[in-house]
Structure to design on (298 residues):
């Protein structure tokens, strides 16, 4: 059971790379912003249907939440546009590793300073080491390509 | 040029982790599916605005490309659902490592074979070493997430 779940999550991660792999060439053909719309337009319709049928009922309204907690979509556009522009130029692998470096680095900062309403947790040594190794991996792939 | 693109992708990763934090907070209040819908619909609205004002005309439109190229969202949305379902059962630590493992394997494959119309970037020794470094990094992310889960 647990193994099956892990395999599902691995497949989910593969899906993310396939998504990135589709976006790059699509962006070259129809324009980066149109490619981005293909993700958010179709995604909005899919998640609307899922929400309509499967969301728990009687959850609090969006309007009862602080405005800044609703900005996820704005940040998402930045990410997908960047994905579309960079993937064809540096390759999917290097793009994914750079994204990973950004994620780990940023979440270190968010945790360390307690930004965005997160409980403050001083930088932990293990994630610091992880970030260093991710940077080495980036350098190796970039060096191999040049 | 490569350096600039890498830097841009790192910024993309930063945006993604801010988004994860913001959405995590919203999700705990209104539910994950509502949060996912809000993210995609606001994303779609902003993209339409950007297209109206900034996009240059292209020879090909979304309606003319082969349909399989439009399936990106069908690969991204299941990820959200799988994560909702799996994280509660296997924990964040294992889930994080498994996602990144899946991403890397698939991206190396896409690069190596040039699948989906991408440029071919063959597997090479530096890439093997990079995978080893990432495996080590993943181990430390796993250890750190597990320590956090234990202390909560």
């Amino acid at each position: 059971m647990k193994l099956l779940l892990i395999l599902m999550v691995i497949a989910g991660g593969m899906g993310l790379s396939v998504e990135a792999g589709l976006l790059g060439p699509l962006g070259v053909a129809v324009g980066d912003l149109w490619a981005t719309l293909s993700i958010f337009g179709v995604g909005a319709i899919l998640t609307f249907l899922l929400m309509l049928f499967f969301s728990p009922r009687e959850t609090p309204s969006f309007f009862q939440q602080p405005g800044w907690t609703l900005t996820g979509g704005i940040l998402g556009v930045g990410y997908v546009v960047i994905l579309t522009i960079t993937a064809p130029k540096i390759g999917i692998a290097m793009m994914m590793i750079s994204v990973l470096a950004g994620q780990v680095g940023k979440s270190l900062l968010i945790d360390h300073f307690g930004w965005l309403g997160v409980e403050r947790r001083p930088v932990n040594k293990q994630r610091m080491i992880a970030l260093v190794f991710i940077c080495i991996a980036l350098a190796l792939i970039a060096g191999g390509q040049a | 040029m490569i350096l600039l693109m890498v830097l841009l992708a790192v910024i993309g990763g930063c945006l993604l982790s801010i988004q994860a934090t913001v959405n995590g907070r919203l999700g705990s209040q209104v539910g994950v599916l509502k949060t996912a819908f809000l993210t995609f619909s606001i994303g779609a609205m902003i993209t339409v605005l950007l297209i109206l004002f900034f996009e240059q005309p292209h020879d090909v439109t979304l309606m003319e490309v082969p349909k399989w190229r439009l399936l990106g969202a069908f690969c991204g949305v299941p990820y959200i659902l799988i994560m909702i379902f799996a994280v509660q059962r296997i924990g964040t630590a294992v889930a994080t490592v498994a996602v990144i493992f899946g991403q890397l394997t698939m991206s190396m494959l896409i690069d190596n074979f040039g699948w989906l119309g991408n440029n071919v970037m063959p597997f090479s020794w530096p890439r093997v070493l990079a995978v080893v470094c990432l495996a080590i990094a993943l181990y430390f992310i796993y250890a750190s997430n597990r320590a956090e889960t234990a202390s909560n």
Notes: The mean pLDDT of chain B is 86. Helices of chain B lie at 2-30, 32-54, 72-90, 92-113, 125-151. The first helix of chain B runs from residue 2 to 30. Chain B touches chain A through 112 residues (CB under 8 Å).
